[in-house]
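During the no-cost extension, the postdoctoral fellow (Dr. R.K.) reprocessed legacy sequence entries with the updated structure-token encoder. One reprocessed record is reproduced below for audit purposes.
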Amino acid sequence: MTKLLLLAPILWTACALDPTSAPAEGERDQALSRVTLASFTCNQSGAPCNFDLASAADRVCVLAGLTGGVAVGPSATLTSVGTEGGENFLTIYTNAGNPITATVMCAHAVNVVGPIHWSWPHAATAIPGTTASSRCFLTQVTADGGFQAYADNVGTYLAGGSWWIGGSASNYLDANATCFDATDVSEPSWGQTGGTTSGTLAPTGAIACGLTQLGGVFTTTGTSDGVAITDNARSHEWQWTFTGAHHAYADCVE
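Re-encoded structure tokens follow.
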């Protein structure tokens, strides 16, 4: 397993969108075709923010970043990528004065499996229908007391020829994962920080990157605290940035 070497600090600014509008996304020709990356912010209480991502007929969407007070009460927060009415949707539910930003990667993919659910304190859940050719990414994170300790985490992993989703937490935490066939560009990358750090995951080209594991302390209000993958158009690289006490795995595939 290759450990990501975290480099000098950079500033990452989330793209805050109106909850009622869809983002303008630039599409690129890639082996995992029609790959897009976009960020969405929700800052309302009492009702979820819903974002229309892409058609679910031939696209799959997974989480590529999460920032904000995911563990800030008084009630649970929810960040979820799912499908409804033939569309991929992102839903964010938060508390008053506690904005949450999610970064989402969408792509055309084959042999899509999921979403499959897991919650703490249950044992890891097998993801049926997956093979060694599958790659599995997080698509939902719900915290209601979880993500208040650095060791709290949820992620996907391959064992015995099948994929699993599981983790551990100091309190309630649940998550979903979705899988599709792809090939690793390199070994999955691991990063952690206690401040603000950034690193390069892979060149862009015919590649897409998403989060396979997420952990740490998400108790800071404001969307500058968390983990986010970005697509640097100037350097043609997939990069990620950590702010606060977080750790994560990311996989870049083609």
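The first strand starts at residue 36 and ends at 42. The chain has no helices and 18 strands. The remaining legacy entries will be reprocessed before the final report is submitted.
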